[in-house]
Amino acid sequence: MRSIGLVVALLASAGLVGAPALASELHYEKVATIYLPTVNGHGDIVTYDSTNDMVYVSLKDDGLAVIDTRTNTVVHTIKDIPNPNGNTFDNNYVYATAAEGLPQGQNGGNNGTGFGTVNQIVVIDKHTWQVVDRVNTEGTTPDYIIADSQHGRLYVVSDDRNFMEAYSTGAHPQLLGVWHLYPQNINHWWIDTSDFTGPDVGWLSVSRQEIFQSVDSYVEVVDAKTGAIKRHTDTGVELTSKGGTKGQWLDEKNNRLWVATTTKEGGLLVLNPDTLAVIKKLPETGGVDQMSVDSKLGLVYTFVSSPGGFDVYDANKMEHVAWVPSHVKLTHTGDVNTKTHMVYAYEGDRAAVGVYKPVK
Asked: What is the pTM of this model?
């Protein structure tokens, strides 16, 4: 395990982009390396919380790290979250998924315990940083999780069966419904799902009450109130062991849906969210997992595991404007502090989060 420390912290405002600028003029300086309380390897989702200026990092194998972006240091570590995947938050709680899945050799199941393995939503109080509840999920290997604090709902998807589960938010989430995603026959116990990678990173539009969800090569739109599949499309992207479609973002100003994919060949897709027709395909430096957005600057970030780093796109022009290498693989997740515009990228092969500053 590596010690927690801050290598460099250059938060001076000189040169920092503070207002929309020509994206083509941007370049990025690394200003900090924050080592995490974990080992090298594949961690997962990174989430910036604007309510307290914290960044939450799902660590490799176990636990959640909390980074204070004002000091760029790890200020809390919550352990006993085995195989963490997604994390999300509302005003009072952080919700993280623990996803041990099924025992080796078993295929399927939806009893919430994985026949002895841990598959849970772990609820963390943001005031005390203590775990206040652990809720068994109906599906196994819970992955991405999204909170709608305005309507008091929480959504989580299950990799092993094509589920989306809806819960109430709060200290003790209550199950509201189990919704089958498309294709629904994946949820039958007798179906061989060995080639099915399951749902992944999605996007919730609170104003439209729609969830834009990645499932294998599909993009599908789920009614956030009822769970009904309103529309879906097969993008045709090549499937890998990590899936096909990945992180999504709905640009409500321009009415465009951005969809990352797991292969360079698949590219970054921009779709019409109402018809799911492709508007444009943009280049990716490598396969992407998480996508993040700085809406104030009109910049889209996609995080690439190999060769390691992140791509930057102009959201308004729909153009690729920069590749920022991390010089380490497994930089497949990250987020952006929308107040300072600093980018936080999980550099898995050195068990760290790199902090990058956009400059003119």
From this structure: 0.91
